[in-house]
Design a protein that fits this description.
about 170 residues; alpha+beta; 2 domains; 5-stranded antiparallel β-sheet
Length: about 170
Amino acid sequence: MKKIIIISCIILVLIFLNYPVFDSEGISYLIIFTCFVAICFSGAKIYFPSDQENYDSVEKETDQLEKYDGDFQCTSEGFYHRQNNLLELIKWDDIISVYSFSIPISNHKKETGLEIITDNTSYEFNKHTPGIEKLTNEMYNHLPDWQLNSPTIRINNHGLEKTKLYERHYEKNL
């Protein structure tokens, strides 16, 4: 990268010293522009060499997050939630509704997570809860009528927003 910067600088100096050599001004401008682009991109690569985030690395990290159980252990009948070294079973059939929430913390940051309401109690898990990605995928697979395109509703003046992801439907017996 340093060689590219040095060569580009030498070419720029030669063009500036011998500017009227070329028959067309457009060629000189094109060479100058190309050298400036090469210097800018080479300089960025030198100053930020650890910028290795690409599609494969992001995909690998996502796959690892989706396989990580964290505080949850999912089964076919429900999931166990580990809290204070106690395991509590939350059955899929007991879940009444699931909401995604977003709470503003500051002007530019929001805390997001899931709110799960069951027959007995409700649970809130934020995005930093270990294993939340796998739990979300398991809920999508086990709960029917998962709604990904529900409207987001603003709940209060402080900016709390909720999106209904799932709601249990009761069948009426006639």
